Amino acid sequence: MRSVVEAFFRTYGIEDQVIAAGVSGGADSLALVWQLKQWAERNGRRIVALTVDHGLRRESREEALYVAGLMADWGIEHHLLVWEGEKPSGDIEARAREARYSLMAGWCLKNGVKTLAVGHHMQDQAETFLMRLCRGSGVYGLSAMLPVTECWGITLVRPQLEQQPEDLRNLLQQLGVAWKEDLSNQSEDFFRTRIRHYLPELEKRTGLTRERLAETAAVLARSRSLIEQLVRQEIAENVADWQGIVKSLPQQILKSWHSELLFRILAALIRVTGHRKYAPESEELLRLSSLIVKPDFKGCTLGDCEIISCRGKIWILPEIRNKPVLRREVWAEWVQRFPELQNVDLPYKVRQAIYLLNQQKTCI
User: Fold this and answer.
1) pLDDT in tens, 113-172
2) What are phi and psi of 37, to 5 degrees?
3) Which of the residue ranges 142-146, 173-177, 291-295, 358-362 would you say has the lowest mean pLDDT?
């Protein structure tokens, strides 16, 4: 067991001196923290455990205090993070997940910790694959959970994706460590629970195991990695960045790109320019992909961005409502401070976005 985590950090070249770990009190996260503890002690690193109390169940605070006591016994720094405020009445599973990661990532950013480990294992990976298959996901969705990913401003790692939940529970039993069962994980109200209960029947009737499902997700993750590499390469070679605010690219090149590549590039540019955590919905992006290559495309808004066609280029800029008029003399004075903008014939909306958003930065 100890070699799995060791191999994970070696494979992905993670050399941080401090690693945060999300720990709920369940078997998966407790096994993660123990394995991280062993790895850290052998490699001169330090582990910090983070527990989120969502306040959705009466038992949640008791479970969090149990984790705190166990971490103290193990000599691991522990912090309890509480989800404050009014709780949602619908879509509880997704909203709670968002709150959990937001709180943990927020703590990491505040305390200079760059990497957060979570306890997902092979069963979780198989469930995620089937859930996304049911929703009609493509290569990105069916890649399921990536071992390492950048999100919430930190690096999220999943060292246990190749481990079985039974093995993690066996580890804790050998250590004489009890874990807390979240009874909500058995509720058929949640889609993941229904998938979990269906998996044994699927294996029995078809021979489709969770190992095979996880392997398929890994194969698709490699395809996703190739696509992402191509997207980064094309953006680096063909997309101009204007002061980190506006992106532009030659309209003619769009026709030379494969439709999937165009789709992914637009998704990446709109997500970054619109300062969104996620790209717009696939249907909206597909519609834009079909329109943007046409000669009569003038412009549209999507994902908090304005996309316009002007002077042979596509310009992607943040959508700004109630914009004041930018006078010519104001812009002329402004560009004196930025040589890269002098003698460049930028569309009016681009000049407006660059000036106004730079002004906002100055005022903050």
Assistant:
1) 999 999 999 999 999 999 999 999 999 999 999 999 998 889 999 999 999 999 999 999
2) -60, -45
3) 358-362
d(CA 323, CA 359): 13
Q: Is pLDDT of 185 > 70?
A: no
Assigned CATH for 2-221 = 3.40.50.620
Written in H, E and C, the secondary structure of the chain is CHHHHHHHHHHCCCCCCEEEEECCCCHHHHHHHHHHHHHHHHHCCEEEEEEEECCCCCCHHHHHHHHHHHHHHHCCEEEEEECCCCCCCCCHHHHHHHHHHHHHHHHHHHCCCCEEECCCCHHHHHHHHHHHHHCCCCHHHHCCCCCEEEECCEEEECCCCCCCHHHHHHHHHHHCCCCCCCHHHHCCCCHHHHHHHHHHHHHHHHCCCHHHHHHHHHHHHHHHHHHHHHHHHHHHHHCEEECCCEEEEEHHHHHHCCHHHHHHHHHHHHHHHCCCCCCCCHHHHHHHHHHHCCCCCCEEEECCEEEEEECCEEEEEECCCCCCCCCHHHHHHHHCCCHHHCCCCCCHHHHHHHHHHHHHHHHC
Contact, 183 vs 60, CB < 8 A? no
pLDDT digits (tens, 9 = 90+) for 29-49: 999 999 999 999 999 999 999
Contact 297, 291 (CB under 8 A): yes
Contact 36, 47 (CB under 8 A): yes
Domains of the chain by residue range = 2-221, 239-363
- Cα within 13 Å of Cα(60), Cβ side: 14
